[in-house]
């Protein structure tokens, strides 16, 4: 366990360092004028422009600007947003709850519905299996932004079952507001998890030891729990972990579509405005979340299969 945690910690630090350089360089090379964002597009005097350029180090070379940011970040100062005129730490603290609730809500839908549909489809061949295959095929080919537009059109505009835009106030109202975004975000990942679950369960059901247990009259629930799901758990865990990790990136698209005040929509706006500090902070936060999700998946491998040690599972 200690070796696993040390290796994961070293991997996280190396990934953060490389990602921070890549993101900063990409923002530096992207077109756009931060001064125009600071002034709201108004014409300013050369003196005022020089003051803003010096304050935000906009005229310095890339390595110098990156060094300023890195040394400040190591002291807990993530910088100041030139778009919203507020501290980046405050901005993240205000918007993180919405994104976290959306990701957790979506993850529950993917795990419960995806694995449930996959198991039912594998164990009940016929009409139910065919319907599940058709549904998951359509969902797998459906991009999140298309699913968002379709859900808004049907369930918000025509049926008025759910609100189309905004975060909501209070937990119950937030859940109502986040239902359509969570479903839009879950569609393609849910289909992938259901397909892998179906295939894994069917493969394990056809194995010799399972057929022997059936011939000996072992109860079906016991066979399913001890001999099928246990052995099928690793591929299901792998694809579920990848699906949940991908939510961290896809959440930006869905938050924009539903006008949610989360980290994803803030990242898109900051990238458009060349708001270096905000882009760096939110992007690195997403990298941390991605590495943590993958570490949890590796940890689950060792729990599900004792033959897998944490030392060898860690990459």
UniProtKB/TrEMBL annotation:
Record carries keyword Transmembrane helix: yes
UniProt keyword list: Cell membrane, Membrane, Transmembrane, Transmembrane helix, Transport
Similarity remark: Belongs to the binding-protein-dependent transport system permease family.
The protein, known as: ABC transporter permease
Domain ABC transmembrane type-1 per the UniProt entry, residue ranges: 96-297
A family per Pfam: BPD_transp_1
Transmembrane residue ranges: 100-120, 132-157, 177-197, 232-258, 278-304
Main location: membrane
Domain of life (superkingdom): Bacteria
Subcellular location: Cell membrane
Membrane topology according to the record: Multi-pass membrane protein
């Amino acid at each position: 366990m200690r070796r696993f945690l040390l290796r994961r910690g070293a991997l996280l630090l190396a990934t953060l360092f490389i990602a921070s350089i890549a993101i900063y360089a990409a923002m530096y090379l992207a077109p756009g004028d931060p001064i125009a964002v600071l002034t709201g597009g108004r014409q300013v005097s050369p003196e005022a422009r020089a003051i803003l350029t010096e304050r935000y180090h906009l005229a310095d070379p890339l390595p110098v600007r990156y060094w300023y940011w890195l040394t400040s970040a190591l002291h807990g100062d993530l910088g100041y947003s030139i778009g919203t005129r507020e501290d980046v730490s405050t901005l993240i603290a205000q918007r993180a709850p919405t994104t976290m609730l959306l990701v957790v809500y979506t993850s529950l839908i993917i795990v419960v519905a995806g694995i449930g549909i996959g198991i039912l489809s594998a164990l009940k061949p016929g009409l139910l299996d065919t319907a599940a295959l058709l549904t998951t095929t359509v969902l797998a080919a459906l991009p999140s932004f298309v699913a968002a537009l379709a859900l808004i059109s049907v369930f918000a505009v025509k049926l008025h079952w759910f609100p189309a835009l905004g975060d909501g106030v209070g937990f119950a109202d937030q859940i109502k507001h986040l239902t359509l975004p969570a479903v839009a975000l879950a569609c393609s990942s849910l289909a992938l998890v259901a397909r892998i679950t179906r295939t894994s369960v069917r493969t394990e059901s056809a194995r010799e030891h399972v057929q022997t247990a059936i011939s000996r009259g072992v109860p079906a629930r016991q066979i399913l729990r001890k001999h099928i799901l246990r052995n099928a758990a690793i591929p299901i865990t792998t694809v579920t972990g990848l699906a949940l990790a991908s939510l961290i990136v896809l959440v930006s698209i869905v938050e924009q579509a539903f006008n949610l005040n989360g980290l994803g929509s803030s990242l898109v706006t900051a990238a458009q405005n060349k708001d270096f500090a905000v882009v760096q902070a939110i992007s690195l936060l997403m990298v941390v979340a991605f590495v943590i999700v993958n570490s949890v998946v590796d940890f689950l491998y060792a729990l599900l299969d004792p033959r897998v040690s944490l030392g060898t599972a860690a990459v």
